[in-house]
Amino acid sequence: MKVSENNGIRIITLETDHLDALNSEEIKKMMINGVQGSEKIVLNMDKVTFVDSSGLGVILTVFRQIKENNGSLVIACVNNTVKVLFKLVRLSHMIQIYDSESEALAAV
Amino acid sequence: MFSDSRDFNRALKSNIGGQMFSSVPFLVLLFSIILFIQSFIFYFFESSVKGIVPFVIMVLLSLIYFSIFLIVKIRIKGNRYSLFNFLILMVFFLSELYLYLFYEMKYLWVFLILTQVFSGYLLLNKRYFYITLSIHLLLYILFNEMMLVNRVQLEFHLSGLSALLLSFLIRHDRRQALINLADIYYSQKEINDRFQQLEDNISQIFILCSNDFEKYYYISSAFERMLTLPREKLLNSPDVWMSFIHPGDKERVNLELNSAAIDKSYREFDLRVSQDDDYIWLKFQLFPIKSGKYGLEDRFAVIVDNITENKLAELKLAEAQSLDSDFAARIQKNLLFSNPILNIQGLDIAAVSIPSLDVAGDFFDFYRFSDSIADIIIADVMGKGMIASMLGAASKSAFMKSRLDLTVLENSIPSIERIMTNTNRALSSELIKLGKFITMQYARINMENALFSFIDSGHTSILYYSDRHKCCWSLKGWNMPVGFNPQEKMINSIIPFNSGDIFFFYSDGVTEAENSDGEQFGERRLNYVLNSSAHLTSSQIMNKVKNLVFHYSSSEGFADDLTCIAMKIGSVNQKSNIVEGIFSGKRESLQVIRTFVSGFLNENFQNTHKEIISSIVLAVNEAVANIIEHNYEKDSLLYGREILIEAGKNGKTCFLRLFYDGKDFDWTTFQAPHLKEMKAGGYGLYLMREIMDSICYSANLDGAQCLTLIKDL
Fold it and tell me: Quick count: other Cβ atoms within 10 Å of Cβ B4?
């Protein structure tokens, strides 16, 4: 996982290609640490090709924490295979999803 | 007791006379010895005057007479016995007469007296006795005349008279003794004859044996009529009959006999024995009895009844009840049960329902939609009696109505969820008012795409024999019985099938049939029967189950309706292409499994949209993650076990079968937590249901679980 700042917006880029039952606990801890002290966050998922329900759980947990701190989260660069899951659970009703990081930075 | 002389003669013939030994012979013997010695002395005295010849003749005659008398006594019986004695006595007379006439032996009268006494003992026949008596009187008078010429001798008359009386006395005494014996013999014979008549005409077997069953004292002739085995064989070797007993009954019979031998008490049991190529049913009743007046029960009287007819009749009767002209039975026959003739190529189907004594609400129905699609219903209305029966009939027609309505409305074959949802909505409110409900399986078989789908509303599971896995799976569904909730969301479970597979539907009357010990027939036995019947036709399978359950519970009869449907897949046009993979049951395998599944799908369903393929991969991933999390990681015994995945293509349908070890898992939760709650988990099952057409869970009795995910592409 890579964390960077851009005009006060924190960008978290996931380096793993899958977010599933195997690594979700580990990623969750890292992400919770990663979002600390920032209100605007962009989650770049360009490298992730697979997310399952536990991965979804990670994103929702992090999102809830940001919400509690009155922050905002958008997701950028979602793979087609991951989009399938997001569509099924209608994640877009809660979290904005953008095709590129620049769009996400502009919207957050 | 008897006056007929023929009876008396028969008594003599039967050698009783020869065995008689009363006080008479002693008296005769004593008397004759005295007379004999006396006459011997007289003869000897006279021999000095008359010479030695008459004495020698007398001694020889005596010896010959007594030895012949002895032979006659031993060898000759009945009328001839009297005749011989008479002849011998006559010869003796003549020889005495000869001695008298030629040698003028004075003391010959002593012999006259001797033979008179003998005649009383020997000549029991009236005719010979009186002839001898007359001859004696003649000779006596003759002697008297000759003696009177010389001098009067008082002792001569006295001994003549006493000999006469004695001979009468002896004869009477002996005759009386013989009559008594003959009486005993005939009354005994009468008893025997009556017993023989009983024995010859009664169909039961009577056996008298020692209380340890080691020795048999009596076996009635019915034994030979019932078993093709001579009685002597059993008398000689008491264990021989055990080899005739049906192997399935042997152990039980041994147990019964052993326990009876120990506590010496009444027993009753049924068993089967082989007769020719068939078996017959015998009922054994053991009564402990005493052989003597006092003491313990040391024997068993056994009564054996042939109850084959009854046993067969019981089964016939139970089956015939549905044919009975009785009103209730007619309702069941005509309204509740349909003919399972579907006329679908490659499908062999048979059904039976044997009602219990009460009318009950089991029903089944078959409906043919097309050349390859048919629906099957098996249902059980809660409770018994007329109401259950009527409700069964009403429900059956409600399904018919829904089917028809929906077909017209949709102008195609309606899905089974639609039929069930519709019917449930129509029936539930009424059922709730009545406080009744219906458990049922609604199944559809589609031979064209080789898929079997069903909705399980709380009924006993469907047994599915898979020819590929050579074992039985118990298919479980997810719904509540009809009559619980009018808004119930029906969940369809689908599995693919193949040639040689068998589907077996049954009511709880099959598995809950109890034997005399209260033990239930159970799903395990039923499984075993199906596993060993894969080569049979559906009607053979059905009959096998019916007979086994009947014999299992025969002593009690059917407590509940016994309903079952056997459906065997003959040949399937749709050949499925299956790829197998075995994976370690750890989270690390998820990646490999995803690759395996997407590889199979991309190769076999090339025209399918990539999004759909990745969603199926996601569903499998969720299923595997669930299995690992809730089984393999929860139970240390299961940790690291493998998961077998069969990925298959059946025409346009893809299916994935996941085999794993572990406990029952409730795959029913299809309501996902709301996203707004932002919960961390609980989306997996929802995703699986959303993505796949059906998720079917089944288990076999060895603890293997199987999850079948299916999707039409």
Answer: 8
Q: What is the pLDDT of residues B661-694, one digit of tens each?
A: 887 777 766 565 666 666 666 788 888 888 888 8
The token duo for B296 is: 């313990």
Q: B684–A93: do the CB atoms touch at under 8 Å?
A: no
- Contacting residues of B for A54, CB less than 8 Å apart: 625, 680-681, 684
Q: Tell me whether residues B629 and A53 touch, CB distance under 8 A.
A: no
φ, ψ of residue B296 in degrees (nearest 5) = -90, 170
Q: In B234-273, which positions are buried (b, 16+ CB within 10 angstroms) versus exposed (e)? A: beeebeebeebbeeebeeebeebbeebbeebeebebbbbb
- The one-character DSSP state at B479 is B
If one counts the domains in chain B, the total is 4
Which superfamily is assigned to A2-101 in CATH? Answer: STAS domain (3.30.750.24)
Of B617, B629, B672, the CB nearest to A21: B629
Please tell me the distance from the alpha carbon of residue B47 to that of residue A26, in angstroms, as a whole number.
152
The shortest C-alpha distance from B662 to chain A (Å) reads 20
65-104 in A: which are within 8 Å (CB) of B? 67, 80-81, 83-85, 88-91, 93-94
Whether B168 and B217 map to the same domain: the answer is: no
Residue B118 CB neighbours (<10 A): 23
DSSP B131-151: HHHHHHHHHHHHHHHHHHHH-
**Structure confidence at residue B371 (pLDDT):** 86
Is the four-CA dihedral B551, B555, B558, B560 of positive or negative sign? negative
Choose among B639, B691, B635: nearest CA to B663: B635
Cα–Cα distance, B347 to B370 (Å, whole number): 13
DSSP B654-668: EEEEEEEES------
Can you give the residue range of the structural domain that contains B604? 577-712
H/E stretch holding B366: strand B360-368
Sign (positive or negative) of CA dihedral A92, A93, A96, A98 = positive
Report the 10 Å Cβ neighbour count for B408.
9
> Is B311 inside any structural domain?
no
Q: What are the pLDDT digits (tens) for B144-168? A: 776 555 555 676 777 778 888 888 8
Asked if A89's CB is within 8 angstroms of B672's CB, the reply is yes
Question: What are the pLDDT digits (tens) for A46-86?
Answer: 888 899 888 888 888 888 888 888 888 899 888 888 888 88
pLDDT (tens digit per residue) in B244-297: 888 777 888 888 888 888 888 888 888 888 777 777 888 888 888 887 767 777
B189 contact partners, CB below 8 Å, separation of at least 6: none
Count, in order, helices (H) and strands (E) of chain A.
4, 7
A52 at B interface, C-beta within 8 A:
yes
Every domain of chain A and the residues it spans: 2-101
Shared domain for B503 and B598, answered yes or no, is no
> Of B279, B306, B333, which residue constitutes the final position of a domain?
B306
